[in-house]
Amino acid sequence: MKFRPCIDIHNGCVKQIVGGSLADKNSSADENFVSEQGGDHYARLYKSRGLTGGHVIILNPAGSEYYEADRRQAFAALEAFPGGLQIGGGVNDENASEYLEKGASHVIVTSYVFKDGSISFERLERLKSAVGAEHIVLDLSCRKRDGKYFIVTDRWQKFTDMEVTKENILMLKGYCDEFLVHAVDAEGKQKGIEEGIASLLGNTEGIVSTYAGGIGSYEDIELLKTLGKGNVDFTVGSALDIFGGKLEFEKIAEMK
Q1: How far is Cα 48 from Cα 43, in angstroms, rounded to an integer?
Q2: In this predicted model, what pLDDT tens digit does every residue of 29-49 receive, in sequence order?
C-alpha cells in the first residue's frame, strides 16, 4: 500500500473539486481548492519526495475552451517529472503515444473504451496495440445505483451497463497494467471511503489498484489498509494541506 499523489486540472488551473458536481455545461464544478501554482510545481514536489505513479487528470473535455490550457498544464507537469506520472482525460488510441512521449509512464482511460454505455473491446484492442498494456491504466470510476457500483464515463456524468465486480476486473486485467477506481459519490467530500469498493479491490488478487474518493482522515487510510488487505494504493486530494485540507502532505508522503 502506498500513496499516489494527484494533479487535477480544470479550466486551466490545478484544482480539487467535488467529483459528482462536474458538468460540461459552462465548464462548471463545485470547487474545494483552486491553486495559484501550476502543475509543474506539484510535479516537482512529488519528484522530490520520490512519489511515483501519481495521476494527472484533465477534467475538461476535448472541444472545451479550456482544453488546450489544461493540456499545457499537464505537459508542464509531465516534463517536470518524466516517467513519474500517469495521465488521463480525453485519452484515445490516436493521442495516447503523445502523452507517453511527453513523459507519462501510463495513460489512464475510461470514456474511450466505452461506447453508448457499453464496453468496446475493439477500442481496448486498438489502445493496447497503440501503446501496449504495460502503459495502460483502466479507470473504473463508479457510482452506486440500485445497490451496485457501475462504471461512469464522460467526467463521471453517464452510467454504463458494466458493474464493478471481481469477475469484470479480472476480465479486463489483460488489457492494462493497473486499475484506478474513483468512488465518485465520495470524491472530494472528505466524509469517508466507500467501504464496498475498498473491500472489492482488496479481495481481487493479482492486480495493482489505486483507490480514490472520500479520504478525510488518517483513520480513513487505516480503514482502507484493513479492507484492502494492504494491497490497495490510495490517493488523497482535497484533504491534503497542500490543497487546503488538514492532513499533512509530508506525513502522507512517507506512506510509500
Answers
A1: 9
A2: 566 778 899 999 999 999 999
Contact partners, residue 132, CB within 8 Å, separation at least 6: none
pLDDT tens string 130-166: 999 999 999 999 999 999 999 998 867 789 999 999 9
What separation in angstroms does the CA of 123 have from each of 62, 119, 127? 18, 9, 6
**Domain 6-253, what fold?**
TIM Barrel (3.20.20)
Q: Give start and end residues of each alpha helix (H) in 102-163.
A: 121-131
What is the amino acid identity at position 214?
Answer: G
Q: Exposed, middle or buried, 218 (CB in 10 Å: 0-12/13-18/19+)?
A: middle
The residue among 79, 1, 74, 4 whose CA lies nearest residue 39 is 74
